[in-house]
Amino acid sequence: MRGTGIASKLADAAVARAAHDAMAALWPAQKARFDGWLANDLAGIPAGRAKWNGIELGRHATAAILALRANDNSAHTIPSNEPGRWRPDPVSMSTAAVGVAWGHVRPFAVPSVDRFNLEGIEQGNRIVDYVFDRGLVPPGGCGCR
Q1: pLDDT tens for residues 68-106?
Q2: Is residue 117 predicted with pLDDT exceeding 70?
Q3: What is the DSSP letter of 91?
Q4: What does the CA dihedral 76, 80, 85, 90 come to, rounded to 10 degrees?
Q5: In 5, 49, 88, 132, which residue has its Cα 20 to 30 A from 96's Cα atom?
Q6: In whole angstroms, what is the distance from residue 66 CA to residue 20 CA?
Q7: Is the dihedral of CA 114, 118, 119, 122 positive or negative?
Q8: Residue of 18, 109, 119 lying closest to 60 (CA atoms)
Q9: Across the chain, how many H-helices and E-strands are there?
Q10: Is the sign of the CA dihedral 106, 109, 111, 117 positive or negative?
Q11: Cα(64)–Cα(108) distance, integer angstroms
């Protein structure tokens, strides 16, 4: 539920605009849908300086984050028909290999991943094997092997 204070109005407008701009940048074919959602969200916020400042804050924040992440190596597409390698989802046939090359992505929450032992992932090992081989499974297992 939305608050009624100035800070709440600013935050609501900023989040609505930031979400819209991020989704529109990532999925441009659906921009019309996102435009409708944004209009609906903003219609519920009374006009005023807080609303307009929030809209601008959301716009600037999203632009900054998208610029920061623009060349982070997350847009890998590595389709293959080799066993054990990533291949497109047969339903969506998306060529976006989301997550398949996260080892090459510039971190966004820590300065570096050098302290983490990721040896073995690069050789194409299944993540399940990687987790089991390092004893990272909780007692009782996970039922995934």
Answers
A1: 888 887 766 666 777 766 677 676 666 666 666 666 777
A2: no
A3: T
A4: 90
A5: 132
A6: 13
A7: negative
A8: 18
A9: 4, 0
A10: negative
A11: 13
Residue 97 DSSP class: -
Other beta carbons within 10 Å of 31: 14
Question: What sign for the dihedral angle of Cα 142, 101, 107, 23?
Answer: negative
The one-character DSSP state at 29 is G
Residues sharing a CB contact under 8 Å with residue 118, sequence separation 6 or more, in sequence order:
103
Closest CA to 50 of 26, 84, 14, 23: 14
Q: Is the pLDDT confidence value at 64 over 60?
A: yes
Cβ atoms of residues 51 and 9 within 8 Å: yes
Write the pLDDT tens digit of every residue in 8-58: 889 999 999 999 999 999 888 899 999 999 999 999 999 999 999 999 999
Residue 145: its pLDDT value, please? 47
Q: Which residues of 63-91 are buried (b: 16+ CB within 10 A; e: fewer)?
A: eeeeeeeeeeebebeeeeeeeeebeeeee
Picking from 94, 91, 66, 65, the residue whose alpha carbon sits closest to that of residue 79 is: 94
